[in-house]
Structure formats: C-alpha cells, structure tokens
Amino acid sequence: MKNNVPARITDSLVKASAVPAEDRELYEFGIRQGIFLVINIATSLLIGLFMGMIWQCIVFMLAYNPIRSYAGGYHAGTPLKCYLLSIPVIISVLFGISLIPWNGYIVVISVILTGIIVLLLAPVEDANKPLDEVETVVFGRRARIILAIVSLAAVALWFAGAEQFAPAVVMALVLISIMLILGAAKNKVLEKKA
Question: Could you tell me if 74 and 161 lie in one domain?
C-alpha cells in the first residue's frame, strides 16, 4: 500500500467495492485534487480571517472560482506550486480590496477593461489543462456568460451601497485578467520553443 492519503483512501474504496479497480487511478487523482481544493479554500479563509476580511474573501472566491474554471489562464505546474502561489495572491487581492481608493469610476472602468481582456482571450488553455475545439467553444461561451453575471454583480453591488463587497468582485475580474494574460504569454513562449 502507498504511503499517501489519496492512495490509502482509494485503496479502501476499491477494497470495499465502492470503486472499480480499473478506475483506481482516476479516483485517486480526484481525491488528491479534492484534498488540495479543500486546503486552498481553508487557507484562503484563514488568511481572510487573519486580515479581518473574511466576507470579502468569501465574495472574492465566489466571483473568481466560476469564471476561472471556464476562462482558464496560467496554471502552476503542480498542485503544491499552485497552493504556494495562491497564498501571496490572496494576500495581494485582500490588500487591493482594502488599499485601493475605490469609487464608482474605478469599479466601472475596471469592469470594462477586465471584461475586454476576458472577451479577447478566454479560454486560455494550459499544458496541464489542454482544450479541444469543442471545449474551446463551450468554455469560451460559459466564461462570457459568467463574466456578464460577475460584471453586473460588481457594478450593482457598488451602486446598491455594498461598497465593502463590490471591490472583492472587481478584484476577481482583475485576477482572472492577469491569469489570462500570463497564460497566453506562457503559451506563446512554449510555441516559440516548440
């Protein structure tokens, strides 16, 4: 038996006949990804709690995660690198929420600029998450729908007086734009090397 938690969980599931033995690797991968997801979310929430911005952190994650799933962009090479990168990123996002002198103009201009970037680039595939033609069309459409919802939410929250939450939504759009630009740049570099 292997010494890592996902392998032990999967082995237990196979022994209990809850998982077909031939799908063992798939389930182990899913369990490993699930564990990393829970650790990422817990760490982000702890950082938000430590910074006194738990609700802004939650709103940021609710806005960021759906669009990130379909827009793509830069991905770290391993789940551990992703986790280690996500820590300074969430801290930077929360500092941006608290330190930028937010007003209606900044919210609207940020939403427009980030919207243009997402519309022009999404979806951006990664070597770890390649997309076929159908996925490119479907993910692009879904990213644009989520973009519209998140953009409207940011502007509506601001003008409805929820000024503590609108910047969290805008920062989600800013971060997804940065990830798309970095992912597209990384893909260009890899194309030139190939």
Answer: yes
Helices (H), the chain: 5-15, 24-50, 54-71, 79-99, 104-121, 133-159, 166-193
Domain that holds residue 127: 53-193
Query: Do 99 and 4 have their domain in common?
Result: no
- Distance (Å, rounded) from C-alpha 136 to C-alpha 29? 23
**Do both 101 and 115 map to the same domain?**
yes
Q: Coil, helix or strand for 162? A: coil
With beta carbons less than 8 A apart as the criterion, state whether 118 and 180 touch.
yes
The 8-class DSSP code of residue 171 comes to: H
pTM listed for this prediction: 0.89
pLDDT digits (tens, 9 = 90+) for 34-67: 998 999 999 999 999 999 999 999 999 999 999 9
